[in-house]
Specification:
elongated; two-stranded antiparallel ribbon; 168 residues; mainly alpha
Length: 168
């Protein structure tokens, strides 16, 4: 009970007598199950994101090249003012990262202190009757369901449990 059991795979014949349907594998495990349009769209979106990321880093690499002594060509940058503005941003970047790290560290330290010295929260016990009332069930039926290892649960149109039967 403390460890999960393996999910039945598509094509497992060992559980043919089971009333539960055999689960299909997840799309993340078998990407060929995804619709072809979705796969092409995901590929195009990924390529566009990589092109955008590389395009954003080109001016930074250009400034690094200029700092190392490479000549600044007219075709790479629209104006020298853009290079000066980008250099100004790059000078502010370490201070911004430092400020973010200080804020995150202060927040972590404050939450640690509050957790350490705060009174523990009281978790009140929920009995079978109270739990059954909360889910609108008969307490005897809820106790029977909890004794089962696998339940097949039916839900109503609003998502509430309308019935359950013990499978194993």
């Amino acid at each position: 009970m403390d460890q999960s059991r393996p999910r039945p795979r598509l094509g497992d014949q060992g559980q043919a007598a089971s009333p539960l349907p055999v689960q299909k594998p997840l799309i993340i495990e078998r990407p060929e199950l995804a619709h072809p349009v979705r796969r092409v769209a995901a590929l195009l979106l990924t390529v566009a994101a990589w092109v955008g990321l590389i395009a954003m880093w080109i001016p930074v690499f250009g400034i690094l090249a200029v700092a190392l002594g490479a000549p600044l060509t007219r075709g790479i940058y629209p104006s020298v003012e853009g290079v000066v503005a980008l250099r100004g941003l790059l000078e502010v970047f370490p201070a911004a990262v430092g400020l973010v790290l200080v804020v995150l560290g202060g927040n972590g330290l404050l939450s640690w202190v509050l957790r350490r010295f705060a009174a523990p929260t009281v978790h009140r016990f929920v009995g079978m009757e109270q739990l059954a009332t909360g889910v609108a069930l008969d307490p005897k039926q809820l106790a029977e369901w909890q004794s089962g290892r696998v339940l097949h649960v039916e839900h109503g149109p609003l998502g509430r449990v309308t019935g359950a039967r013990i499978v194993r």
